[in-house]
Amino acid sequence: MPPTLGTNVLGRKVLYLPSFFTYAKYIVQVDGKIGLFRGLSPRLMSNALSTVTRGSMKKVFPPDEIEQVSNKDDMKTSLKKVVKETSYEMMMQCVSRMLAHPLHVISMRCMVQFVGREAKYSGVLSSIGKIFKEEGLLGFFVGLIPHLLGDVVFLWGCNLLAHFINAYLVDDSVSDTPGGLGNDQNPGSQFSQALAIRSYTKFVMGIAVSMLTYPFLLVGDLMAVNNCGLQAGLPPYSPVFKSWIHCWKYLSVQGQLFRGSSLLFRRVSSGSCFALE
């Protein structure tokens, strides 16, 4: 769908891509409400497999007892705890991602069939057969590397940022003072507030870091459907990429590394070009 002309907060005329709701309304008009749930089955199976994998790994490789990090720890000790915890999380995430990625590829291809009105990928089992026949075993893992890199960068970035904020900016020393503050009737209330701040800090850092790692998700999903026989992954809708690095460079030049990251005000970058019928 082509961009539309609008104005920004400064009153200047700019081009905007259709929003999430515009696309959703169009899909409902073409396929009905069921069209909004293309690729749902393999996506649910992918999430379930990922959850089961992580649970099984925790049983086989139980994590060591990790003490809570506080500002009482020196920098070397507290950082060592965070590195140990993050390394364990990274191992579980990478293994679960690799096992569930084939189902994610099938889910993405089921979704983009809407563009060319195709029905090549219908059921999970039939899709597995088609991919294996046409692309071999590697066909199930296209786009895996950028997804893995995105997961690794997200985990380390989120945990390290949250650690430095929680350990060195959030002070819980008042918990050692009997009665806390002078008018506080609950001696542990200050400590509870520190714990609450720590939990929110990691949540906020997760949102911030996920925005920075969005290009990895975008490139991985584009590679999952690129040159797979569907119109959405072929010219004029998309170039044929040699590798995920080629895809990344192309999006960077076009100014589209963050395309789709916003639900509403999706401004067109100056370098973008669109294939119009």
Helix/strand layout:
Blueprint lengths: L3 E4 L5 E5 L2 H12 L8 H21 L14 H42 L7 H12 L8 H25 L20 H24 L1 H12 L18 H11 L11 E2 L10
Antiparallel strand pairs: 1-2, 2-3
Compact summary:
The protein has 8 helices and 3 strands. It has helices spanning 20-31, 40-60, 75-116, 124-135, 144-168, 189-212, 214-225, 244-254, and strands spanning 4-7, 13-17, 266-267. It is found in: Mitochondrion outer membrane.
How would you characterize the overall build of this protein?
One of its GO terms (biological process) is apoptotic process. Keywords: Apoptosis, Membrane, Methylation, Mitochondrion, Mitochondrion outer membrane, Repeat, Transmembrane, Transmembrane helix, Transport. The protein is mainly α. It has a domain at 37-67 and 74-172 and 190-240: Alpha/alpha barrel (Mitochondrial carrier fold). It is 57% helix and 4% strand. The chain has helices at 20-31, 40-60, 75-116, 124-135, 144-168, 189-212, 214-225, 244-254; strands at 4-7, 13-17, 266-267. Strands 1-2-3 form a three-stranded antiparallel β-sheet, with no helix packed on it. A hairpin with a 5-residue loop joins strand 1 (4-7) and strand 2 (13-17). Helix 7 packs across helix 8. The radius of gyration is 23 Å and the shape is globular. The relative contact order is 0.12.
